[in-house]
Amino acid sequence: MDIEQRQSELIDQFVKQASAASNTSAISSVIVDATSHPLLFAFSEILALPNVLQLEATDEKFYLDLLRLFAHGIWSDYKSNADRLPQLAPDQILKLKQLTVLTLAETYKVLPYDQLMQELDVTNVRELEDFLINECMYAGIVRGKLDQLRRCFEVQFAAVGT
């Protein structure tokens, strides 16, 4: 099964769960589960649900903001707004960093290592390359070539996120 088909099935699953959620804590729980799921990289359909959008007027609004971050933001957006968002679990941090690479790969075909290390809070090239290979390429969200001489990642494919 390819990544798009897997995404579609997961999106349907979480849309059904969120649609069936009858109160704000149930909706918040679905949001946490969706943003933590290791294979889900698209959040717009969940974000469009009327009962999810109703969180805007509740004490649970920060879960809606969290979902918006995963749908449209990157790691640096979280860092600059962390005081207004729930603390992220390790799975969510990993996911948001993967989404950061995906977002940049959709926009640029060559990603300089220095830019990626800054965006991902990675301190060395080895750690960056391991992340790109193990967490992004193996996950199927991007394909490309690591160019150690030019210190960049050349994007050949980026799965459609958001």
Automatic annotation (TrEMBL):
GO cellular component: COP9 signalosome
Pfam families: CSN7_HB_subdom (PF22061), PCI (PF01399)
Protein keywords: Signalosome
Domain (PCI): residue spans on this chain: 1-160
SMART domains: PINT
Signal sequence bounds: none
Protein family per UniProt: Belongs to the CSN7/EIF3M family. CSN7 subfamily.
Protein name: PCI domain-containing protein
Lineage, opening ranks: Eukaryota, Viridiplantae, Streptophyta, Embryophyta, Tracheophyta
